[in-house]
Amino acid sequence: MQSTLAADLTVLERIARGDSTAVDACIKTYGGLVWSIARRYFKRQADAEDAVQEVFLDLWKSAARFDRNQRSETVFVAMIAKRRVIDRFRAETRHPAAEELPPTGIENPHADANPEICTEAGQIRARLGDLRAEERDTLDLGVVYGYSHAEIAKKLDMPLGTVKSHMRRGLMRLKGWLDDEPEIK
After folding, report:
1. Are the beta carbons of 89 and 41 closer than 8 angstroms?
2. What is the pTM assigned to this prediction?
3. How far is residue 37's CA from residue 42's CA, in Å, rounded to a whole number?
């Protein structure tokens, strides 16, 4: 004979044993508690509803962890609810949903421009051959191929500071040449 009769089981213990009616009983018993916790953190009703749904899903999954000798069922439910709601709140505040910005009415004149055809890109491409080999190689690996300074240093067998110096000198020379070019109107 079982020491605990089915009538003596708590809602979570019934869920842990697979009683399908216990899920509805859990929602009816603890829905208000979970809802009030969720509404403390979320202003939008839809966000609170999603959080409540996650809490009850987690309660269903973790019902077997409930031990009536450690704490009351209400405290266990509140503890799970608060943890899940806080986790969801933190995740949403770290990665807020993107909102579409209203149109500004300002057109971007370069929206359809191809960088390969851009005048400045053409000027720089024409002047790359005028750079020293070390400057050209480091800029090529960094800008074109996306290598980090450390990766370039390893690839070219150069000290890291030297790689940074070559890149900076090369960029400064290209900028100087661009500044010297007469504007095309």
Report:
1. yes
2. 0.48
3. 9
